[in-house]
Amino acid sequence: MTENIQNSLNNILNKVKSIHGELLNERKTNSVLKNEIQQLRNSNIEKTNLVFSLETEVETLRSALHLAQNKVVEVPIQVVGKREEEIDELVREIEHCIEQLKQ
Predict the structure, then answer these.
(1) Considering the chain, what is the average pLDDT of its residues?
(2) What does pTM read for this prediction?
(3) How far is it, in rounded angstroms, from Cα 39 to Cα 42?
(4) Residues 62, 78: one domain?
(5) Domain, as residue range, for 88
C-alpha cells in the first residue's frame, strides 16, 4: 500500500512539475504579449498624433485655398471687348493723322 501511495505521490508531483513548467511558459508568453500590446499602443498614439497633424495641415491648406480663391480677380469679357474697340479707334486715328501728314 505504501508503494501505491508513493506512486500516487510521484504521479501528483510529476503533474505539479508539468503544470508548473506550463505556468512558467504561459508567464513568458504573457510578458511577450504585454510588451507587444505596449508597442502597439505607442504606435497607435504616434499614428493618432500624425493624423491630427495632417488634419490640421489640410485645414490650413483649405483655408489658404479659400483665401486665394477670394483674391482672384475676374475680368469681365465686356471690358476686354471694349478695350479692343478703343485700340481699333486709336489705330484709325493714327492712320487718319498719317494720311493728313502725307497731304
Answers:
(1) 88
(2) 0.53
(3) 5
(4) no
(5) 74-103
Beta-strand ranges (E) seen in 1-103 are none
- How far is it, in rounded angstroms, from Cα 22 to Cα 26? 6
Same domain flag for 46 and 85:
no
- Cell matching residue 95: 492712320
Residue 6 shares a structural domain with residue 27: yes
- How far apart CA 1 and CA 18 sit, in angstroms, is 25
Q: How far apart are the first and last CA of the chain?
A: 152
Long-range contacts of 8-13 (CB under 8 A, 24+ apart): none
CA-only gyration radius of the chain, Å: 45
Asked if 97 and 61 sit in the same domain, the reply is no
List pLDDT tens digits, range 8-30: 999 999 999 999 999 999 999 99
Domain count, the chain: 2
